[in-house]
Specification:
2 helices, about 0% strand
Length: about 70
């Protein structure tokens, strides 16, 4: 019975470590995505600053009636 309890504790410990590692990887991945999104938004903003009428430019890409 003691062996089962030890085995269960070891298993729980490994699962906790794996969970913590997964959380760290998700946080790192999330920060990379956030940085890439911010960079992309900055590029879009710069592009729209260069266009005379950015509102019309954006409206040209809106789909209408299932097009």
């Amino acid at each position: 019975m003691q062996r089962r309890e030890e085995h269960r504790r070891q298993k729980d410990s490994r699962e906790e470590e794996a969970s913590a590692e997964a959380a760290d990887q998700a946080a790192e991945s999330g920060s990379k995505v956030s940085a890439e999104a911010a960079k992309l938004l900055e590029e879009v903003d710069d592009l729209l600053d260069e266009i005379e009428n950015p509102e019309e430019f954006v409206k040209a890409f809106v789909q209408k009636g299932g097009q």
